[in-house]
């Protein structure tokens, strides 16, 4: 089974990806992780990607797709993969389908974690970090013993720059503009299944697994 996990930032894709990949014996593939691995290994694709990054430019879709397809085509991942954070745009999705067909593979299922913008904003803006020890808290889900103070005695907690309301709303706007259209693309192909991502982690995991059981 080759599975794609979609959803806005803060929807819990990383947590659910690890759980689902483990439950079904899938290789968990993140485009960011693969890009770093290709660069570290000094592969030809990695060198090409590095040349763009050295110039401060985005890595072209065709290079990212080639890296992902190369991983999906490895014999040791014959049981299937779970794609997390990729594809991000419709052109990437179309290119992925084309390249997969060339190696006799396809995407079997797309799960979208549905979480509304206000809930996402609440999740992300509620995070608090300790700049000294790196501990992470949340005002709703994992509050410190003393409000605003690290439990380890380090002192005052801070809000990361990318967790501010303005930045979170901009990330969501980018998601709706660039990535949300993938829902329509995969729905038209009959592959999309929507799961309510606003519940407890275990509840969401079970709902995702139920959608996968008919495919695996």
Task: Provide a short characterization of the protein structure.
This protein is of the alpha/beta class and 216 residues long.
Can you offer a commentary on this structure?
By secondary structure, the protein is an alpha/beta fold. The protein has nine helices and seven strands. It has helices at 13-24, 31-41, 44-54, 61-72, 90-102, 117-125, 165-179, 181-188, 201-213; strands at 3-6, 27-30, 81-84, 109-114, 127-129, 136-138, 192-196. The strands form two sheets. It has a five-stranded parallel sheet with strand order 2-3-1-4-7, sandwiched between helices. A two-stranded antiparallel sheet has the order 5-6. The chain is globular. The termini are close together.
């Amino acid at each position: 089974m080759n599975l794609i996990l979609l959803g806005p930032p803060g929807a819990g894709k990383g947590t659910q990806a690890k759980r689902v990949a483990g439950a079904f014996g899938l290789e968990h593939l993140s485009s960011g992780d693969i890009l770093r691995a290709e660069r570290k290994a000094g592969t030809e694709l990695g060198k090409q990607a590095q040349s763009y990054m050295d110039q401060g430019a985005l890595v072209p879709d065709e290079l990212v797709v080639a890296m992902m397809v190369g991983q999906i085509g490895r014999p040791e991942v014959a049981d299937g993969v779970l794609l997390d954070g990729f594809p991000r745009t419709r052109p990437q999705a179309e290119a992925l389908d084309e390249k997969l067909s060339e190696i006799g593979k396809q995407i079997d299922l797309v799960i979208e974690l549905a979480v509304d913008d206000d809930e996402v904003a609440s999740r992300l803006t509620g995070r608090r970090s300790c700049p000294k020890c790196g501990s992470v808290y949340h005002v709703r889900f994992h509050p410190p013993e003393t409000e605003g103070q690290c439990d380890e005695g380090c002192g005052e907690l801070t809000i990361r720059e990318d967790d501010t309301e303005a930045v979170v709303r901009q990330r969501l706007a980018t998601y709706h503009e660039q990535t949300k259209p993938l829902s329509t693309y995969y729905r038209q192909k009959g592959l999309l299944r929507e799961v309510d991502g606003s519940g407890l982690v275990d509840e969401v995991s079970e709902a995702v697994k139920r959608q996968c059981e008919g495919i695996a």
